[in-house]
């Protein structure tokens, strides 16, 4: 049987690879150099935040997608209904509603199957499912809010759907029509609407999840998958100090994400490996980890949140900034909303720019650092009062400001989410 041209090429490369040593490079080194150059370019240019929000959509549209009109509903029997917990005892993710949404995907059967709402139940999954062995899985975090008018609202769910499809595309999982999933989730929330807390200190957390279920070994795109949505009434995400702020620990020896990786995708493999560092931070008296990257100790994220800083810039103006979306950072829905809202206020400069620990220390010593805070769906806004870094404690004057920016942002977001302000960011569930 004749050898194909590709086989000849591979054979030649193996026989002559010693001749290629002068031009070979470590791909991660090249990517790191590229990131440094891009970071420098971002710092050099005064780029409006709105030009850096959007990321490219997955290549192509889904070949098929499940449809809301095909949704099948099986309601829980009375004996399957769970008692509603007291809002004071909620915690985060301890209780779950009576129903869930499931959509199966089977390539041999044509792709996505009909969506169904069923009583909440355990999943039956093969021990060889790819989600269990190769972390072929991803998730989203959303909330439903009961407003002052008793209407239930979602906050920018279209952005969660876009981000979910981006993660699916990267993970070899099937993409779908985000609007169809939103409509299916609306129906799920309507059915379990009494699980949406009657309180502005609590919400209904929504967790859409997509996992590879094909029961074969081998790192490749699965032919079978399961998309499911479970919901949990929640209160505060984590404990804070008595003043409501958090202390964070920055360890240069550990990183959350690396160039070319999936730090900008909401996949489970980003979170499990952070537990050891978070535990160590807690043992040292801190609430969360501040994730650094590179020899200049760039700030990337804090815990599972995006990070923001408020300071007096070289022109004497107040400036709100957050690191740019350079592939290391999750494009948070709250992050994007903060940048858009603050830009509309036109009361201070709003920028995406590289932030380093040297910059934080210098600004703090000069009295120009005003605030630092984390932002995300689960915790909304978390002010930062202290950073542990290289055996030093850096006190951040966030809670000492008379009219802190973080508080105005938090109040505005909550006012939109709970219906005090009618705003296009929200979707009302009728």
Mean pLDDT: 88
| Terminal CA distance | 67 Å
Classify the secondary structure makeup into a structural class.
alpha+beta
Let me know the largest β-sheet.
10 strands, mixed
Question: What overall form do the CA principal axes indicate?
Answer: globular
At a glance:
With 430 residues, this protein is α+β, with helices and mostly antiparallel strands. The chain has helices spanning 5-16, 27-44, 130-134, 157-171, 178-191, 275-283, 333-345, 357-365, 405-417, and strands at 72-73, 99-106, 111-112, 116-119, 137-139, 142-146, 152-155, 203-212, 224-234, 246-250, 288-293, 298-302, 305-312, 318-322, 349-352, 369-376, 380-389, 392-395, 426-429. The longest helix has 18 residues, at 27-44.
Top keywords for this entry?
430 residues; D-amino Acid Aminotransferase, Chain A, domain 2; 2 domains; 9 helices; 25% strand; globular
């Amino acid at each position: 049987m004749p050898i194909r041209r590709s086989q000849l090429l591979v054979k030649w490369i193996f026989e002559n690879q010693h001749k290629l040593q002068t031009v070979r490079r470590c791909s991660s080194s090249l990517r790191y150099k590229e990131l440094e150059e891009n970071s420098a370019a971002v710092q050099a240019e005064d780029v409006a935040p709105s030009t850096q929000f959007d990321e490219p959509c997955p290549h192509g549209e889904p070949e098929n997608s499940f449809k809301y009109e095909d949704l099948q509903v099986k309601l829980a029997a009375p004996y399957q209904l769970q008692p509603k917990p007291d809002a004071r005892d909620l915690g985060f993710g301890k209780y779950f509603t009576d129903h869930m949404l499931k959509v199966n995907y089977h390539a041999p059967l044509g792709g996505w199957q009909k969506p169904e709402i069923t009583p909440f139940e355990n999943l039956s999954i093969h021990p060889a499912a790819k989600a269990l062995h190769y972390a072929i899985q991803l998730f989203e975090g959303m909330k439903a809010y009961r407003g002052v008018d008793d209407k239930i609202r979602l906050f920018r769910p279209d952005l969660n759907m876009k981000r979910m499809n981006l993660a699916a595309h990267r993970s070899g999982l099937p993409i779908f029509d985000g609007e169809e999933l939103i409509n299916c989730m609306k129906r799920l929330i309507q059915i379990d609407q009494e699980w949406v807390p009657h309180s502005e200190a609590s919400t209904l957390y929504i967790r859409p999840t997509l996992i590879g279920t094909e029961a074969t070994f081998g790192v490749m795109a699965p032919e079978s998958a399961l998309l499911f949505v479970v919901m949990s009434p929640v209160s505060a995400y984590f404990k804070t100090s008595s003043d409501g702020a958090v202390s964070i620990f920055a360890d240069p020896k550990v990183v959350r994400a690396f160039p070319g990786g999936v730090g900008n995708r909401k996949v489970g493999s980003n979170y499990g490996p952070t537990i050891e560092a978070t535990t160590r931070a807690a043992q040292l008296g801190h609430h969360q980890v501040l994730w650094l990257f590179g020899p200049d100790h760039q700030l990337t994220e804090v815990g599972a949140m995006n990070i923001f800083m408020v300071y007096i810039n070289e022109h004497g103006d107040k400036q709100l900034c957050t690191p740019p979306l350079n592939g290391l950072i999750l494009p948070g829905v709250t992050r994007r909303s903060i940048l858009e809202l603050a830009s509309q206020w036109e009361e201070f400069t709003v920028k995406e720019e590289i932030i380093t620990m040297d910059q934080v220390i210098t600004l703090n010593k000069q009295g120009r650092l005003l605030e630092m805070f984390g932002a995300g769906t689960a915790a909304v806004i978390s002010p930062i009062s202290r950073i542990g870094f290289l055996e030093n404690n850096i006190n951040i004057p966030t809670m000492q400001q008379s009219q802190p920016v973080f508080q105005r942002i938090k109040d505005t977001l909550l006012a939109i989410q709970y219906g005090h302000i009618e705003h296009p960011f929200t979707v009302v569930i009728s």
